[in-house]
Target: HNH endonuclease
Amino acid sequence: MVDHIDGTPCIKKKSVPKKSAIAQYWSMINHDVILYVDWGEPVCWACGMQASKYDFHELGLSKQDRFKVWDVECYLERSHIVPSALGGCNCEANLVLLCRTCHEDNPDTRNEELFFRWFNSRRSYPLRRLEEIKVEFQNFNLEFSIVNFILFRSCIEFYNYMEENSIAVGGKFSMATKVASFIDWRSQFTEGELFEKLSPEEKLLALDKT
Model:
């Protein structure tokens, strides 16, 4: 492989990376494929099956270390997008995390686009979560903009604020708590200051969507 589907070059990794490394990689890639995953709550990225006993709060992990929760989940398997037998690499960009059923069912070909066509057809939980976020944003009269969504999904500064100023009931923050905390946090900044909190890649995505 020369380039991955996300446009990054293949660096020909010899060994398959940890699940935490795969999750962390995709959390930083603004690709339409991985639409919504709560990176602190392991699920199958295709069908959305959630068999995890823990999220990162229950394991006592900080927001910065939240990806380690993926390493303790044996029901999730590392699945090559392009199989290694067909020349697929071990780069994070060629790997996704799937339950055993989805791993067995996925198409094993060289065609990445067809893999993600299959992948998208199985999505349920990620889409439901996205709709849940949209509804909660509407409940609080908060615009569902690309900048707000990116910051809500992945800004460590926001999550640190939420942990200090709200309560996780049963080890988890409710969606209403997350959105209310996000509104409180973002009210401290101007729109320009919020935009500057995005990574360079996120800024490009935000500008492309406006």
